[in-house]
Write a structure and sequence with these properties.
Helix 9 packs across helix 10, helix 10 crosses helix 12 and helix 24 packs across helix 27. The chain is 46% helix and 14% strand. It is built from 27 helices and 21 strands. Among the domains are: 122 residues, Roll (Ubiquitin-like (UB roll)); 114 residues, Methane Monooxygenase Hydroxylase, Chain G, domain 1 (Up-down Bundle). Strands 1, 2, 3, 4, 5 and 6 form a six-stranded mixed β-sheet that branches. The chain has a four-stranded mixed β-sheet with strand order 9-18-12-13. A three-stranded antiparallel β-sheet has the order 19-20-21, covered by helices on one side. It is of the alpha+beta class. Keywords: Actin-binding, ATP-binding, Coiled coil, Cytoplasm, Membrane, Motor protein, Myosin, Nucleotide-binding, Synapse. InterPro entries: Kinesin_motor_dom_sf (IPR036961), Myo9 (IPR046987), Myosin_head_motor_dom-like (IPR001609), P-loop_NTPase (IPR027417), RA_dom (IPR000159), RA_Myosin-IXa (IPR028558), Ubiquitin-like_domsf (IPR029071). One of its GO terms (cellular component) is axonal growth cone. This is Myosin IXA.
């Protein structure tokens, strides 16, 4: 397979070569090349391996995929397609498959109990456990302790000894350290082989702190605590940008789903595997500190039966950084997906979507274009395959890429003042309007009017007023940001639908869950704005949660139990949180007030901040007339520029822009704007049900007409069968009529009406 070919690879037609490493199963064979196509299953590949290597056919074998980030093994189901998994690998892994230690397929033998047989691993574990027991009993000397795996065990606990202990452990590639039940992770920025099956087995059902600190231990404790106490669990991940939070989330999710099964990966894990590159492409970007920084927060909830079997999962997103779409700081880029699309699209797609080069788009040409070592064409192919794994059909993918192109072209629209009217503007480059209107499938003249004028309704009349120059740019950017945000919400919704399990809909099914929260790290850049303000406030609340549960509540419990205890002093950040969020004078509430005043400006907002909180020790205002303020966060002081605070806080589309997009002939775009996506989805389900029933009845009628005069009993039998399954007599239809009538009587809105009508269709089995 040629990885460096210039054209697009047709996954469906090409034959690929899989290099399978059999290990001890076939002595003397390093790897076995097996030809396979995109849709070849793991079972078919294993059959080929058995025949090629003359293996024992009475034994059960599985394929395992080793991932780049640490040697952990993902066991493939018999119906999984190894070629599809391989095409999700980075370009360098595909080019260096023979020499690479990571990214490969292994052949494993399966035991009778469903577990995987790892040969010498079992004896290795037994020896390790025996050595530990002998050291505990004093038969073997204790190793000289140069570092402590739990900072609570330090004989002298202060900042210097704490940092020195972390430094010593890191030098020996010990990146994990406990602080009681908290795990500290230092990003090594390199491959460490500490995630392979021997570590998975080692930490299975072990008490926290008995073994060397590891992220698997945290996942294992959360899982078994959930099963024993029958209570939901949550794992919170926080840290600064680039500290490895998203990678740690990947480890946790993989281990949490693997714990509930013996051998094969679940369907949930497979979808999460495909969802990762999709969310990364649309929600990650290059920043000054990190080439692949998550610009949104997410909460992933894995749901289980009471027996511990995975039921499904759910993804919730928070605070997508919409402003990045229209503006990037120095040495930063827009979201990855735009660069993937422009580099990887075929000639046919380039013509259909009117694609250009990145430097020709205003939303992309503000700073850097290229990140060293990336292969955008290959990344685009990975994205397409990942979208297919999640369930996005080729037609849906084309609609998404068309919308992305429309957003980029929308950003190229420029304005100018008309010479004969001071308060009127015009578009400098009207040749872009036909492109945008064609991609959005809206009328060009209506698009023009929405971009240069606003409609205001007063008592008895409608006014059409021209935008000022700055207002028009704001409306254009707001339209682009709202479109991208709606698209991202829709993608997350579709992923959640793919992760949905029908057993969730059964009222009698009791479920347990483990949630993993992965949000932005604390940020302090050269120029901090509203986005950093929101991100750091979220981290401030997390720190408060940490303080409450680790210090305050724990010490109160000790006092209540009469335990002799010296209180530990800690920095309580409640005052900082009150400064930002407490009603009625918190900064966020003052911001909302100013956002509702038409004549307010960012300067009046800053003046209100100063008037209310000038004496507060947690906020500082510059001595000179600088439009900024400084907050003393738990992690240090951060200066925020007040510019665009009001605009970003009220970032929404005007009604005439919403009406324009709802008038689109493209149902994908019109349904995405302004309506609850759940209602849209349920309405699509109901519409498909109607169409299926009508088609069934029409087919029956045509069959009767063809058979008339030949066999009277057959049509009668068919009609009788149809009547017994008639839509008019079906309980779904009867329930629909009841809900429609109730919605009509209670005067619900259209979206509410559709949602209530379709809800029982969605859960009906």
């Amino acid at each position: 397979m040629n990885i460096n070919d210039g054209g697009r690879r047709l996954f469906e037609d090409n034959e690929h070569t899989l290099h399978i490493y059999p290990g001890t199963i076939s002595e003397g064979t390093i790897y076995c090349p097996i030809p396979a196509r995109k849709n070849s299953t793991a079972a078919e590949v294993i059959d080929s391996l058995i025949n090629r290597l003359h293996l024992d056919k009475t034994k059960c074998y599985v394929l395992a995929e080793v991932k780049e980030f640490g040697g952990e093994e993902w066991i493939l189901n018999p119906t999984d397609c190894p070629v599809q998994r391989m095409m999700l690998w980075p370009r360098m892994a595909l080019e260096n498959r023979l020499s690479g230690e990571d990214y490969r397929f292994l052949l494993r033998e399966k035991n009778l109990d469903g577990s995987i047989h790892y040969g010498s691993l079992q004896s290795w574990l037994q020896v390790t456990e025996e050595r530990r027991r002998m050291m505990e009993r004093g038969f073997l000397p204790q190793p000289q302790q140069k570092d402590f795996d739990d900072l609570c065990s330090l004989p002298d606990l202060n900042e210097k000894t704490l940092l020195e202990n972390l430094r010593n452990r890191f030098k020996h590639e010990k990146i994990y350290t406990y602080v009681g039940s908290i795990l500290i992770v230092i990003n090594p920025f390199k491959f460490l082989p500490i995630y392979n099956p021997k570590y998975v087995k080692m930490y299975d059902n072990h008490q926290l702190g008995k073994l060397e600190p590891h992220i698997y231990a945290v996942a294992d404790v959360a899982y078994h605590t959930m099963l024993q106490r029958k209570k939901n669990q949550c794992i919170v991940i926080s840290g600064e940008s680039g500290s490895g939070k998203t990678q740690s989330t990947n480890f946790l999710i993989h281990h949490l789903t693997a714990l509930s099964q013996k051998g094969f990966a679940s369907g949930v894990e497979q979808i999460i595997l495909g969802a990762g590159p999709v969310l990364e492409a649309f929600g990650n970007a290059k920043t000054a500190h990190n080439n692949n920084s998550s610009r949104f927060g997410k909460f992933i909830q894995v749901n289980y039966q009471e027996t511990g079997t995975v039921l499904g999962a759910y993804v919730e997103k928070y605070l997508l950084e919409k402003s990045r779409l229209v503006y990037q700081e120095h040495n930063e880029r827009n979201y990855h997906v735009f660069y993937y699309l422009l580099a990887g699209a075929s000639e046919e797609e380039r013509l259909a979507f009117h694609l250009k080069q990145p430097e020709e788009y205003h939303y992309l040409n503000q700073d850097c274009f290229i990140v060293e070592g990336e292969d955008l064409k290959h990344d685009f192919e990975r994205l397409q395959l990942a979208m297919e794994m999640v369930g996005f059909l080729p037609k849906t993918q084309r609609q998404i890429f068309s919308l992305l192109s429309a957003i980029l072209h929308l950003g190229n629209i420029c304005y100018k003042k008309k010479t004969y009217r001071d308060d009127s503007i015009d578009i400098c480059n009207p040749e872009i309007l036909p492109v945008v209107s064609a991609l959005l499938e809206v009328k060009e003249e209506v698009l023009f009017e929405a971009l240069v004028t606003r409609k205001t309704v007063t008592v008895g009349e409608k006014l059409i007023l021209p935008y000022r120059l700055t207002e028009a740019v704001t409306v254009r950017n707001s339209m682009a940001k709202s479109l991208y945000s709606a698209l991202f919400d829709w993608i997350v919704f579709r992923i959640n639908h793919a992760l949905l399990n029908s057993k969730h809909l059964e009222q009698n099914t009791k479920t347990l869950s483990i949630g993993v929260l992965d949000i932005f790290g604390f940020e302090d850049y050269e120029n901090n704005s509203f986005e950093q303000f929101c991100i750091n406030f979220a981290n401030e609340r997390l720190q408060h949660y940490f303080n409450q549960h680790i210090f305050k509540l724990e010490q109160e419990e000790y006092r209540a139990e009469g335990i002799s205890w010296h209180n530990i002093d800690y920095i309580d950040n409640t005052c900082c949180i009150n400064l930002i969020s407490k009603k009625p004078t918190g900064l966020l509430h003052l911001l909302d007030e100013e956002s509702n005043f038409p004549q307010a400006t960012n300067q009046t907002l800053l003046a209100k901040f100063k008037h209310q909180h000038e004496e507060n020790s947690y906020i500082e205002f510059p001595a000179v007339m600088e439009p900024a303020f400084t907050i003393k966060h738990y992690a240090g002081k951060v200066k925020y520029g007040i510019k665009d605070f009001r605009e970003k806080n009220t970032d929404h589309m005007r009604p005439d822009i919403v009406a324009l997009l709802r008038s689109s002939k493209n149902a994908f775009i019109s349904g995405m704007i302004g309506i609850d996506p759940v209602s849209v989805f349920r309405w699509a389900v109901l519409r498909a049900f109607f169409r299926a029933m009508v088609a069934f009845r029409e087919a029956g009628k045509r069959h009767v007409q063809r058979k008339t005069g030949h066999d009277d009993t057959a049509p009668c039998a068919i009609l009788k069968s149809m009547d017994s399954f008639s839509f008019l007599q079906h309980p779904v239809h009867q329930r629909s009529l009841e809900i429609l009538q109730r919605c009509k009587e209670e005067k619900y809105s259209k979206a509410e009406n559709l949602d209530k009508l379709c809800h029982h269709i969605f859960i009906w089995k």
